[in-house]
Amino acid sequence: MDLWVVWLMVIIALSFIEVITINLVSIWFIVSALISLITSFFDIPFIWQFGIFVLLGIFLMITTKPILKKWIKPRDIKTNFDRIIGMTGVVTEEITKNNVGEVKVDGKKWSAISTKKIAINEEVIIDSIDGVKLTVHKLEEK
To answer: In this predicted model, what pLDDT tens digit does every residue of 1-22 receive, in sequence order?
Structure first.
């Protein structure tokens, strides 16, 4: 079997691996396998082709991965939980410093805590989510 066929199979296998993973695992070795495929046409011994494949793949991974991670930033998709942070809600059960109350925000009722007493029907701002409880403050505070 010709060496270029071997490199072509390596490229296809690595491409398949890259498609089924989303972490840019083998993209650098696909490029180095392409270079090794090209060198196979110039009657270069296999050991040199394999060395080019390994060393170039590692070199590309070390030098370009940090650049790509900065360039390709994952989108921050807000879930149902964190999208309500910063929204305004209405207290449906009184909140005191030591007792959990209830807040209705975005059409849903949540358990809520606060450092100060907040009466029923007062508007609050959602500061954070701690487990299944919202941390809130009065609308006119802060």
So the answer is: 788 999 999 999 999 998 888 7
SS3 content of the chain, % helix, strand, coil (to 5): 45, 25, 35
Q: List all residues 6 or more positions away from 56 whose beta carbon is below 8 Å from its beta carbon.
A: 31, 32, 35, 36
What does DSSP assign to residue 23? S
CA dist 68 and 8 (Å) reads 26
- Tell me how far apart the alpha carbons of residues 124 and 39 are, in angstroms, rounded to a whole number: 68
Tell me the C-alpha distance between 137 and 88, whole Å.
10
| Residue 46: alpha-carbon gap to chain centroid | 39
Q: Any idea which residue has 């005191």 for tokens?
A: 96
Cα distance between residue 40 and residue 9, in whole Å: 13
